[in-house]
Amino acid sequence: NAEYMGLIVKMFVSVKDVSQHAFVAAMATFLKKSGKVTLPKNVDIIKLTPANELNPYEPDWFYIRCASVMRHLYVRRTGMAGLRKIYGRKRRNGTAPAHYVRANSTVLRRALQEMEILGFREGQAGWSHSD
Predict the structure, then answer these.
(1) CA dist., res. 27 & res. 129, Å (int)
(2) Tens digits of per-residue pLDDT, 99-119?
(3) Residue 104: partners with Cβ closer than 8 Å, 6 or more residues away
(4) What is the pLDDT of residues 54-81, one digit of tens each?
(5) How far apart (Å, rounded) are the C-alpha atoms in residues 109 and 85?
(6) What whole-number distance in Å separates Cα of residue 129 and Cα of residue 90?
(7) Sign of dihedral through CA atoms 102, 48, 45, 41?
(8) CA 89 from chain center: how many Å?
(9) Of 65, 46, 64, 63, the residue nearest 55 (C-alpha)
(10) How far is the first Cα of the chain from the last one, in angstroms, to the nearest whole number?
(11) C-alpha angle with apex 106: 90 to 72, nearest 5 degrees?
């Protein structure tokens, strides 16, 4: 609460008011401690983009990616193509020119599915991969 000209004003804090790094770190810690997020089976060998040569060094990278996806969706709603573009990066091709590549859609899809299971995100009604 803050006081302004003798009046008590309640101050609300949203995701946009907090540091991006602080929010993602805190949310990733919450997701890990809750124990409700299931990790992918190949979490130790999966790459986040085709531009990467190795998998992430951070053992909790999936929780961090889930928290980051949640923050991005809160700030600006987007679909799979937008998320792939956000998390993509430049691929260095040695002596050939570098090109931009999009992120791995499997990781992002799995993160979105986990957020739906936890109730942080609503899926599109009447849409499935089998249609």
Answers:
(1) 29
(2) 999 999 999 999 999 988 888
(3) 46, 47, 48, 49, 50
(4) 888 999 999 999 999 999 999 988 889 9
(5) 14
(6) 29
(7) negative
(8) 15
(9) 46
(10) 51
(11) 70
Q: Which amino acid is at 47?
A: K
Query: Residue by residue, what is the 3-state secondary structure of the chain?
Result: CEEECCEEECCCCCHHHCCHHHHHHHHHHHHHHHCCCCCCCCCCCCCCCCCCCCCCCCCCHHHHHHHHHHHHHHHCCCCHHHHHHHHCEEEEECCEEEEEECCCHHHHHHHHHHHHHHCCCCCCCCCCCCC
Torsion of CA 56, 61, 65, 71, to 10 degrees: -130
Give the angle subtended at the CA of 51 by the CAs of 46 and 52, to the nearest 5°: 45
If you search the block for the tokens 């799995």, which residue do you land on? 110
Structure tokens at 21: 């790094």
